[in-house]
Specification:
This protein has one domain: HybD-like (Rossmann fold). The chain is about 35% helix and about 20% strand. The protein has helices spanning about 5-20, 40-50, 75-85, 125-135, 155-175; strands spanning about 25-30, 65-70, 85-95, 105, 115, 135-145. Strands 1, 2, 3, 4, 5 and 6 form a six-stranded mixed beta sheet that branches. Strand 1, helix 2 (about 40-50) and strand 2 (about 65-70) form a beta-alpha-beta unit.
């Protein structure tokens, strides 16, 4: 099986970052857990925290920060600024017009005008702020949604993609800490 394009791009970015001693990565899970696939970013962040608890910064000098931002990622910019992130990975559902569950690694500028979940500010504005204030790089890991109905869980293709993302990001981020 070939490596998905998103994983190749993420691996290149994170390998470059790994060459920087003490590099810091923040993951921001975004979305509404009550609206089906829209909650995929929050689900991924929760799974990463659960599976890699010893590697995540609560206080001290850890180099990974994982936040479940829900519908208001802008409310977490202060934590990211204090953490001094080198890279922020925003993870969430999006409507990219492709196959449900497909995953895309995007630079933040590529999400301008992209339809995503119901957060209060567009991700491009949050990303622009982080780049200007923190001096970090910002990437978006977007997963094509299938079902965004209230009271629904993750659809099968999105749940499968989310599990793949957790496994891949876990291997990339937490085997180097």
């Amino acid at each position: 099986m070939s490596t998905p394009t998103w994983l190749s791009s993420a691996t290149q970015t994170l390998n470059r970052l790994a060459s920087i001693d003490g590099s810091r990565v923040a993951i921001l899970g975004i979305g509404n857990e009550l609206n089906g696939d829209d909650g995929v970013g929050v689900w991924i962040a929760s799974e990463l925290r659960e599976q890699y608890p010893g590697n995540i910064r609560a206080e001290g000098d850890k180099t990974r920060l994982i936040l479940s931002a829900g519908l208001a990622p802008e409310n977490f910019t202060g934590q990211i600024r204090r953490f001094r992130a080198d890279i922020v990975i925003m993870i969430g559902a999006a409507d990219m017009g492709c196959e449900p569950g497909s995953v895309h690694w995007l630079q933040w500028e590529q999400v301008v005008g992209m339809s995503s979940s119901t957060h209060s500010l567009p991700l491009s504005i949050v990303a622009h702020y982080l780049v200007a204030e923190v001096g970090c790089e910002v990437y978006v890991l977007a997963i094509q949604a299938n079902v965004n109905e209230f009271g629904q869980g993750l659809s099968t293709p999105v749940a499968n993609a989310a599990q793949d993302v957790v496994h891949a990001l876990g291997a990339l981020l937490f085997t180097r800490v």
